[in-house]
Design goal:
It contains four helices and five strands; from the N terminus they run βαααββαββ. It has one domain: Molybdopterin cofactor biosynthesis C (MoaC) domain (Alpha-Beta Plaits), CATH 3.30.70.640. The longest helix has 19 residues. Helix 2 runs antiparallel to helix 4. By secondary structure, it is of the alpha+beta class. 29% of the residues lie in helices and 31% in strands.
Length: 157
């Protein structure tokens, strides 16, 4: 196992110095899912929830969250993102909304946390907008699918 990088010699937290790293095109994709009842799923798909268009609001929430990741994850660097895209893939037979977020930048550090944060915020927004009609919504399986542009490329798909 490699050494933890976010601690200084005294064992206190630090944000690592990336100033010597070359700027490269970085890309990461994460996914997750929101499991709802068949009735809630139908309300989402028909746009009949009182709070509005659930997937449209979740899309904006995910994009906003990706842009602000460094404000909520303590050791993340602020990154000038060049793109954030969020896709929803509803599965009617399972009453599941699958979420996929892809984030890009040209910089010295990766955008995995931004992609994961985008998926998480989109899922939480779906939960928030549906909680009035269903109390047992399940958010799950949030994970990194792939990343590229740094020292190592990862693909778990």
């Amino acid at each position: 196992m490699s050494e933890l990088t976010h601690f200084n010699d005294e064992g206190r937290a630090k944000m690592i110095d990336i100033s010597e790293k070359p700027a490269t095109l970085r890309k990461a994709t994460a996914c997750g899912s929101v499991h709802v009842s068949a009735d809630t799923f139908a309300l989402i798909m028909r746009g009949e929830l009182k709070k509005g268009d659930v997937l449209a609001v979740a899309q904006i929430a995910g994009i906003m969250a990706a842009k602000r990741t460094s404000e909520i994850i303590p050791m993340c660097h602020p990154i000038a993102l060049t793109g954030v895209d969020i896709d929803f893939c509803p599965e009617e037979e399972r009453s599941v909304i699958n979420i996929k977020a892809t984030v890009c930048c040209k910089g010295e550090t990766g955008v995995e946390m931004e992609a994961l944060t985008a998926v998480s915020a989109a899922a939480l927004t779906i939960y928030d907008m549906c909680k009035a009609v269903q109390k047992d919504i399940v958010i799950g399986n949030i994970r990194l699918l792939r990343k590229s542009g740094g020292k190592s490329d990862i693909c778990t798909e």
